[in-house]
Amino acid sequence: MTDRPARPHLLVTGGAGFIGSAFVREILARRDGSRITVLDKLTYAGNEANLAPVRADPEQAARLTFVRGDIADTGTVEPLVAAADAIVNFAAESHVDRSILDPEAFLRTGVVGVHVLLDALRRETDRVAAGDRAAAPRLVQVSTDEVYGSIDEGRAGESDALAPRSPYAAAKAAGDLLARAYHVTYGSDVVITRGSNTYGPYQHPEKLIPLFVTNAIDDLPLPLYGDGLQRREWLAVNDHALAVEHVLWHGAAGEMYNIPGSAELPNREVVRRLLARLGKPWSLVRSVEDRPGHDRRYAMDGAKLAALGWRPRVPFEAGLAATVDWFVANEAWWRAVRTGAWEGYYERMYDTRLAASREA
Ligand code: NAD
Ligand code: TDX
Fold it and tell me: Contact 118/274 with Cβ under 8 angstroms?
């Protein structure tokens, strides 16, 4: 637990991305006086349009400050951490396929960036010891189920060994280990969340659900990796954001909390359901060459977070329907994202695969 100031000032890194922006929109829409500073590098995945609902509302906009910058840049990070009551780190390179094509940015943000944030936090802890500040801020490190590796049977618990299998997952695991080490060594107030596969509005179309929904709207082929029987647990983005906030105020320092999804499904079933919602045929689906080292299944035990009083609110059926409908209603948002550098990425990822694809 950490004391929640009446009107907290949060530093949200990666707040222009998919989950970070949902967190920002959710908190500011409550109009409880909370203030948020977003620090975001605006990589290809960061998008200020994700914060448009906040900007369109003068009362909310007045409580948001946006800083474009890198969490690996000490000069940018230190004053922002010094001014915050708490920090929530969503910033990361987040796409497994891109980490296979080009891992370096994953390490820079996931390892060096997390280290810079933790060092700034350590300075604030030292200031408290020196009597320069009343309470040190807490940092929530937002992590992922992928750090446990592929789980053939059962469910991963927070004390299980880490066994990441992609450069993305390895960088995230390194961030978790650093955060934990700063807590043990310097007494920094750090908590870690490990969320499962998240879906919802404003998700970048490189990920399974938005890629397949937007391709299907345009009657383009849907590239299903391998046999499509890989299993994921699906978590609605607002549930993920609220779970992170719950851990921020109620979690115990130095602890890790799994955030499982509300449904475990094979990819084929997710695709069948999204096509049904769109009224599009299965014949769009093509079986393509698999992702190298593709994790077969993720599954986590959520008892520790449930004991802290958190429950997911959105059943997958309702969440998926709302997400599909959002993409149908917000073509301008995703068509703008699927331009420019997107085209080169798509070609590199899918052209050869689709040319050799089979019926799924
Ligand atoms: P995203 O790719 O949509 O957003 C990441 C954001 O971080 C972007 O706005 C990007 O511009 C910013 N960013 C990247 N590098 C940065 C840097 N060096 N400095 C500052 N900003 C930087 O990702 P997401 O899906 O919203 O994921 C957010 C976090 O949640 C990540 O840490 C990810 O590992 C974790 N996570 C995601 C999922 C999921 O299914 N999407 C599941 C579990 C955990
Ligand atoms: O074109 C595709 N075809 C396909 O079959 C894509 C993009 C994905 N897939 C499969 C791979 C996975 O089994 O769909 C599943 C989901 O893939 P992604 O959306 O890329 O997510 P995943 O690799 O499972 O990782 C996600 O969940 C954990 C997020 O991207 C991570 O940021 C998070 O940590």
Answer: no
